[in-house]
Design goal:
12 strands; 53% helix; 13 helices; 15% strand; alpha/beta; three-stranded parallel β-sheet; 388 residues
Length: 388
């Protein structure tokens, strides 16, 4: 009896130990499985935040304005485009270009956060500095004047009215009037007491008669000669002076007409008042023309300003000098020409929103490109003699 009870107890404890053993191994297997799962999943989870922190591509606003930006078959090229690509490579930034029709829309996109930067031929001005950040200057230029080619329009009628009001001819006419007054008084004094003299003795109307004779003789059209000795000597001298005067006047008039035909009416910024000048809306050229009360024809694109000039809807185009020089040497060759010197010198820069985090890195990259020769190579490529 006792042996039977002992056997039952041994079987009970043996069964309990086996269950405990199975439970221990079950829990151990479960813990190991969890650890393996965490080890497999953790690397994927650790990579996910890194993907989330990657910066999205920068949006760079630009606009077509040769030779800074060309758009051909939806492909962008030009000085500004290649310069930005070099800067982006230097700062290790992905980007995409977005094209806008004019500088006003480009600046608006940067200001409204639609673009992270803008590059083309954007002038740095005090007014714009209040609304945007700018990079260091990337190009130095200024404004210049484009007119129709004077050689191509040499058959046009010269402006005779402007010829007679030119400074040179006004000086000649003033000198002639002075000589006529002097000669009239001399001939009146010498002829007034002569019995057969052609001049009345009284000052009026004698001086008018003398003045008419002096003017006619100066023009080599004298119809009457003095009777006195002094008067005749004066008449001979006056006739020689008249021949010289006519020759000088003819030469001065011919020179003025020739210069007018070769140069046209507009040769510098001083000739713009009273003319219709075309330029683009929102440009620094438009601001300059308005400040100086010059009649302005504003168009959305510079190409439309060229068309207005060639169609004679405008007398001139005022815009950035490099852009006008490029057009005159290429598409506008033989049709237009650049006149006068560069005025209102200005710098072009990369426009950024206020407090842009990219400004310092862009400036560092720009300085580096100038130091290592990359900038100079791009400048020579796009502004060489053949292209400008």
């Amino acid at each position: 009896m006792v042996d039977a009870i002992a056997q039952k107890l041994n079987q009970f404890f043996a069964a309990r130990k086996m269950k405990r053993f199975l439970k221990q191994h079950l829990w151990l297997g479960l813990v190991c499985g969890i650890l393996v799962f965490l080890l497999v999943v953790h690397p994927a989870q650790s990579q996910q935040p890194a993907a989330q922190t990657t910066q999205p591509p920068l949006t760079v606003a630009t606009r077509a304005i040769p030779p800074f930006v060309f758009v051909e078959k939806n492909e962008l090229s030009g000085f500004s485009i290649e310069l930005w690509r070099s800067i982006a490579k230097n700062i290790d930034a992905e980007f995409k270009f977005v094209e806008y029709p004019n500088v006003a829309d480009l600046l608006s996109a940067v200001q409204n956060g639609k673009a992270d930067a803008g590059i083309a031929a954007i002038s740095i001005t005090a007014e714009r500095q209040q609304q945007f950040d700018f990079s260091l200057p990337m190009f130095t230029g200024g404004l210049q004047i484009l007119v129709r080619d004077s050689k191509g329009s040499s058959g046009s009628t010269p402006n005779i009215l402007s010829l007679f009001f030119s400074a040179a001819l006004l000086q000649v006419i003033g000198l002639a009037l002075l000589l006529i007054v002097v000669a009239a008084h001399i001939i009146w004094l010498s002829e007034r007491n002569h019995k057969e003299g052609m001049i009345p003795q009284s000052y009026f109307p004698g001086i008018f008669k003398a003045g008419w004779w002096a003017a006619a003789t100066l023009a080599t059209q004298a119809d009457e000669m003095p009777k006195g000795v002094i008067g005749r000597v004066l008449a001979i001298i006056w006739m020689f002076i008249g021949v010289l005067f006519v020759a000088y006047f003819t030469a001065a008039a011919t020179t003025s007409l020739t210069v007018q035909q070769l140069q046209g009416d507009i040769n510098s910024v001083d000739d713009l008042p009273g003319k219709v000048v075309a330029t683009t809306t929102g440009s620094t050229a438009a601001t300059y023309l308005k400040e100086h009360k010059i009649s302005i024809l504003e168009v959305p694109k510079i190409e439309q300003a060229y068309e207005a000039l060639e169609a004679k809807k405008a007398d001139a185009v005022v815009f950035d000098a490099p852009v006008l020089l490029y057009y005159a040497a290429n598409q506008g060759q033989g049709k237009v020409e650049v006149v006068g010197s560069v005025f209102r010198e200005e710098n072009y820069g990369i426009v950024l929103p206020n407090n842009s985090p990219y400004r310092k890195s862009i400036n560092r990259a720009l300085l580096k490109l100038k130091e290592d020769g990359t900038y100079q190579a791009l400048y020579d490529k796009w502004f060489s003699v053949k292209k400008s």
